[in-house]
Amino acid sequence: MDYDNNIEINTAQNVSLELPLAGIGSRLLAQIFDILVIIIFEMLMIIVFSTLLNSTKHIPSWIPTVSLILNFVLIWGYFPIMEYFNNGQTLGKKVFKIKVKSDMGGPLGFGPAIIRNLIRIVDFLPGFYGIGLLVMFLNNKNKRLGDIVSGTVVLTDYKTKYKTMKDIKSHIGEISEQNYDEKLLDIAKKIGLDDSKYQYIVNYIQRKDKLKAEVRNSILNSFFDVLDLESCPNCRELINSLTISEKETFVEILKRFYEK
């Protein structure tokens, strides 16, 4: 697939990341796949409702209503619902290994998911994404109008290639000169963040330079206290022994694993 171009993303903490853009070809193939999925579901609904209608002399009043609702949800809800609840991926995007992210490289929000898919109507004009394809060819981020307005970008579904702590430090950049225990990487692999914890980390990183050391340490300790460490009984003791700088490096690592 055409994964030749990269995009440079500057995070809120001024760390520069280079991530692989999804090519136009892979996006088109994913779109065709999703359209086929929608068509198949539409055909299944037609078969089901036709069977119901043929099995009774009196058409129940709820059948047309339910049919209209399901059609609306399928046609207008498939893309935003799948992308928001499935980590930026529809079935087509998953098959062709691409995903939607925010311009900052973070998870796709519900608002942007709705906006980018509403504008799909304009992108589709005058037929099969004529405007969308033109806009994608004219910008170096392969963005259609929906992406530009919603502040999103479509990337390859890259997997983190970090094997050692040195790899992570090198990727993050600003902490590359610091030396940390390899155990931090093992802990990060075992911890799964949810959206709220991820946002907590993002908010902290944005504010930390304005906070005193004791306040930063208190906030970090509060965050670590709510982490689920049942799968790693000795991890909490190690985390508690870290310096403030080491703790901040650790939350950077957690953030990167969440965004992969």
Structure description:
The protein has two domains: 6-156, no CATH class; 165-259, no CATH class. It has helices spanning 24-54, 62-85, 91-95, 110-118, 120-124, 130-138, 145-150, 165-172, 183-190, 195-207, 213-225, 235-240, 244-259; strands at residues 6-10, 16-20, 98-102, 152-156. The protein has 13 helices and four strands. Helix 2 crosses helix 4 (110-118), helix 9 packs across helix 13 and helix 10 crosses helix 13. The radius of gyration is 23 Å and the shape is globular. By secondary structure, it is mainly alpha-helical. Residues 160-180 have low confidence and may be disordered. Helices cover 59% and strands 8% of the residues. The strands form two sheets. The protein has a two-stranded antiparallel ribbon with strand order 1-2. A hairpin with a 5-residue loop joins strand 1 and strand 2.
How many structural domains in the coordinates?
Answer: 2
Uncertain segments:
160-180
- Give the oligomeric state of the chains in this entry, treating copies of one chain as homo and distinct chains as hetero: single chain
How many DSSP H or I helices? 13
Radius of gyration (CA) equals 23 Å
The secondary structure category is: mainly alpha
